[in-house]
Each structure stands twice: as C-alpha cells, then as structure tokens.
Write a structure and sequence with these properties.
- The chain is mainly α.
- The chain has 5 helices and 2 strands.
- A two-stranded antiparallel ribbon has the order 1-2.
C-alpha cells in the first residue's frame, strides 16, 4: 500500500474537521452546563438564600442530602412546596416597562447582571456538587425553601446564623 501526499492531506483535513466538531460539542456542553447552573442559582435567589456565604450554603445542602438519605419521602414534600411556590410566583413575573424599568440597559446594570449571573453559577454549581437526589426544579426549590424555613440556617441582617 502506497501512501501518497494527497492521501496524507485528505487524512489531516478529516482529522481537523473532527477536531472542530469535537470543539463545538465541548462548547455546546459547557454552555448547557452553565445554563443549568444559572437555572439552579436562580432558584437560590428566588428563596433569598443568595445572601449566605457559599460554605454555609453548601453545608446546608449536605444536611438536606443526609435528611433525604434517612427520609426519602421528603422528596414528595419538597415537590409539593416547590410546585406551590411556582404556582404563586408565575403572576409576579410580569415586567412593566412604564414603571421606570429602562428597556435599554446601562453599563452599570449590565455589570450588575453579569455579577448576579456569576453568583447564580456559583450557587448552581454547589447544588450540582452536593449531588442531591432531586430530579425536578420543584423538588430543588422545595428543598431550598426547607433549608430557608425549617433548616438550621436563618438569614439575619445579611449574616448567616446557625441555630443550635
């Protein structure tokens, strides 16, 4: 079998094409993971746990995980709590431009949004890292509500306080 320069060129072109496809797939996957983290982080903001330090928040998630290992039926409670919040929250999402919300973002508002998005990604990443056995947004939201209301963590003037 004789290897010609044309065959080598064709093989290197095919390899380059496959490398580009792989790079696009990696970028697409990274974007999907980031979008998922933002979605989870938005749930954290919705229940106002975003004020907690990341370490305290993660420790709270690990406590929820332990509770779920001992009482798997809590998933149903979390699902119910989350769904009830979603039902009530839907009507609050209307944005009225006439009430002073500028349709053209300013540089400061873009910086603020970027900062908030980074924070959501951090919180979403911690939820993923905790590896909770929750499969729906409602279950995650319900668990976060339980962490906020009945868990050991309470927000007190921007500071996290651990009840004993």
């Amino acid at each position: 079998m004789l290897i010609t320069p044309e065959a080598i060129k064709k093989q290197s072109q095919q390899l380059a094409k496959l490398e580009r496809q792989l790079a696009r797939l990696k970028t697409k996957r990274r974007n999907e993971e980031t979008r998922h983290k933002i979605l989870l982080g938005s749930l954290v903001v919705k229940v106002k746990l975003h004020q907690l330090p990341l370490d305290d928040f993660y420790n709270g998630l690990l406590e929820i995980k332990k509770k779920l290992e001992n009482e798997p039926e809590l998933i149903n409670l979390y699902q119910y709590k989350g769904e009830s919040i979603f039902m009530g929250y839907q009507s609050l999402q209307k944005v009225n431009i006439e009430e002073g919300i500028s349709p053209i973002p300013t540089l400061d508002s873009l910086k603020y949004l970027r900062q908030q998005t980074r924070r959501k990604i951090q919180f979403g990443g911690l939820i993923i890292k905790a590896n909770l056995p929750l499969t729906t947004k409602a279950q995650v939201l319900g668990a976060l509500i339980s962490l906020r209301e009945g868990g050991r963590m309470k927000i007190n003037g921007g500071q996290s306080v651990i009840d004993n």
